[in-house]
Design goal:
This protein is an alpha+beta fold. 24% of the residues lie in helices and 25% in strands.
Length: 419
């Protein structure tokens, strides 16, 4: 009997999944454990395995198209099996042509299994790498990761996978070509001419737009800014890195100081739930990470109980997974407070939009040398500015200020974090 596979919900904010690539086409034999497709969500690209043996009889949408959560993704059965009744009774995307026939019951599977991207067998001679409408080169997640490590430009690699898709062997066999002599740039359009480019909005960007709009226009934000002397933090970091097995960054110190401050000010570690306020007793710090298509927030759990080396190692691992779009749901869900750091981009100060369901988010600016007054004399000091965005429905000014004072004390005397 044919089996229906629905589009699974792969994240708490997912409403639609986009088919990044099919690894099987209609008519192909499928075994349990075979990779069927790559599904792009608002936060990651996940691999979907088959749980059944049979033949792929129906694919719900072509690569690059979306299917709503719960919509018909695929049907697997026996060769030549009549599935018209199944298609008529299943939830399908609006664009799928389905005959209006009576509904039939069928087992439904929605749980995905994340596995390393499979390397498809060669089906044709290599062709020039193709791009999606949004400009992304077709390549398996594993091929992308290897190319990033080797510094290979994917647009220069010929793909031997399905439809010119770049796979692992293409990266391993890639030989850089001699660069042609640069040509003079093409003449610009006539003076006064107009041009533009339109890019299809990704699932991630759609979700960012929706969630942050809801946050800014629903939660009454207010902002508290403070300057922090980082002189002792700078000295402490140098001393720690002399003995630490992993390099500790200022951001690692910020995360640790935030976690310890939340322990002393639990009302900041909270969430607005409409008819009630949740005060979290656990401390999970969301760490905003910029990726190609937007922003992801992997979570460092129980950060208050972890040492700086452990936080550093975990932060590096999660940031790498975020940039490779390999985060799993357990790694991006459950934050109780968020830190957004733009200091490495040369930003002195900024305000961040609260990341629901958190009640606060801390914006971290860069460390700069500035004239400061110390013991009645003007000297050069290392100063960092931070801004706390608060949901006024949950956190009042005095509560937010007390949190910042504790945070400032910890960074200005880092030995406190080691006690």
């Amino acid at each position: 009997m044919a089996k229906i596979i629905e589009m699974p919900r792969l994240s708490d904010t997912m409403t639609e999944g986009v088919i990044a690539a099919w690894h099987k086409k209609v008519g192909d034999k499928v075994s349990a454990g075979d990779l069927l497709a790559e599904i792009e969500t608002d936060k990651a690209t996940m691999d979907l395995e088959s749980f059944f043996d049979g033949v792929l009889l129906y694919a719900g949408a072509e690569a690059g198209k979306g299917i709503a959560v719960g919509g018909l993704l695929a049907v697997i059965g026996q060769a030549g099996e009549d599935i018209s009744a199944l298609l008529g009774g299943a939830k399908t995307p609006a664009s799928a042509p389905v005959a209006p026939v009576p509904q039939a019951e069928a087992p439904v599977v929605t749980a995905p299994v994340a596995v390393p991207a499979a390397v498809p067998a060669p089906v044709a001679a290599p062709v020039a790498a193709e791009e999606h409408e949004d400009g992304r080169v077709k390549a398996s997640p594993l091929a992308k990761a290897i190319a990033r490590e080797k510094g290979i430009d994917l647009t220069q690699v010929a793909g031997s996978g399905d439809n010119g898709r770049i796979v692992k062997r293409d990266i391993e066999n890639y030989q850089p070509q001699a660069q042609p002599v640069a040509q003079a740039p093409a003449a610009m359009s006539a003076a006064g001419g107009e041009s533009y480019e339109e890019v299809v909005v990704s699932q991630m960007r759609k979700t960012i737009a929706r969630r942050l709009s809801e946050s800014l226009f629903t939660a009454p934000h207010f902002y508290l800014t403070m300057e922090i002397s980082m002189d002792k933090a700078k000295v402490a970091r140098e001393a720690l890195n002399a003995v630490s097995p992993v390099k500790i960054s200022y951001n690692d110190m910020v995360i640790k100081a935030v976690a310890l401050s939340l322990r002393q000010h639990p009302k900041v570690n909270s969430a607005w739930l409409g008819d009630k306020i949740r005060y979290n007793k656990h401390i999970h710090i969301g760490m905003a990470v910029a990726v190609e298509e937007g922003l992801l927030v992997p979570v460092i759990r129980h950060a208050d109980t972890k040492g700086l080396s452990e936080i550093s190692q975990e932060a590096k691992t999660l940031a790498g997974k975020a940039r490779d779009r390999k985060l799993q749901p357990a790694e991006w869900e459950g934050n109780t407070f968020t830190v957004s750091n733009l200091g490495m981009f040369g930003i002195d100060t900024f305000t961040a939009i609260i990341n629901p369901p958190d009640a606060c988010i801390l914006a971290i600016g860069g460390i700069s040398e500035q004239p400061v007054v110390r013991n009645g004399e003007i000297v050069v000091g290392n100063v960092m500015k931070v801004t706390l965005s608060c949901d006024h429905r949950v956190v009042d000014g005095a509560i937010g200020s007390a949190f910042l004072v504790t945070f400032k004390q910890l960074l200005e005397d880092p030995m406190r974090m080691l006690l």
